[in-house]
Specification:
Layout lengths: L1 H10 L2 H8 L3 H25 L10 E2 L7 E2 L1 H6 L11 E5 L5 H4 L10 E8 L2 H15 L3 E8 L15 E7 L13 E3 L17 E3 L8
Parallel strand pairs: 1-2, 3-4
Antiparallel strand pairs: 4-6, 5-6, 7-8
Helix pairs in contact: 1-3
């Protein structure tokens, strides 16, 4: 909702009407497009959580409990025991740097988790934390996809985004044996899209030794 209000306030601002008067068509269309984008997202969000089999809990997830936050264990306990079985939980995590505090708890419940999508923030200052957590997760999970968030910019003197979106799948669920190494270039057409639609997406590629070129 905040994104809609911000976009609406921009369209109703004096700056926007000045753009209209000056016939800045491209900038006017851009601002209207942003308002349309967030409105559609909000409607999709509302329709999804209006379903009978979907439950929305307005709580944040962190490593410590508070009035507004719960732990990962608390979040899992909100599920009924019959649904909380082996490999029945898929985690989608975008919690603005708290991922570094929460993800270590994943190993405690890894038997119930089949996959994870997580957005890692501020890698320009938290790269060592990122490497440590990835090494931990790779014990039970395999990286199957990676995407750079083009809002955050790049780590200085590198081609690596400050914000990375990474998908991991439980190793025991992977049926086909993966090649020891392959060259992959991201973003993948038809699958990935830029977070900021008005800027070029971040390019990532793995060379033959499978190291991310930074």
């Amino acid at each position: 909702m905040k994104n809609i209000l911000d976009a609406l306030n921009e369209v109703l601002s004096g700056r926007f009407f000045l753009l209209v008067r000056l016939l800045k068509v491209q900038k006017v269309r851009q601002r209207l497009s942003i308002l349309k984008y967030w409105t559609k997202n909000y409607l999709r969000f509302s329709r999804f959580f209006d379903r009978e089999n979907v439950r929305f809990c307005p709580k944040g997830v962190s490593s410590e409990r508070s009035a507004t936050f719960v732990t990962l264990e608390d979040a899992l306990q909100m599920m009924s025991p019959e649904k909380l079985q082996e490999n029945t939980v898929f985690i989608k995590m975008d919690i603005e740097q708290s991922e570094f505090r929460v993800l270590p708890d994943v190993l405690k419940f890894q038997d119930r988790i089949n996959g994870i999508v997580v957005e890692f923030h501020d890698l320009d200052i938290l790269w060592s934390n990122f490497v440590e957590i990835m090494d931990m997760l790779k014990i039970h999970f395999e990286v199957t996809h990676i995407h750079g968030n083009n809002y955050g910019g790049l780590i200085p003197n590198s081609r690596t985004p400050k914000v990375l979106e990474i998908t991991l799948l439980k190793k025991s669920l992977i049926r086909e044996k993966q090649p020891s190494c392959e060259t992959v270039v991201y973003p993948i057409p038809g699958l990935d899209r830029p977070n900021n639609r008005f800027e070029k997406d971040c390019a990532l590629f793995f060379e033959s030794d499978c190291d991310l070129r930074a």
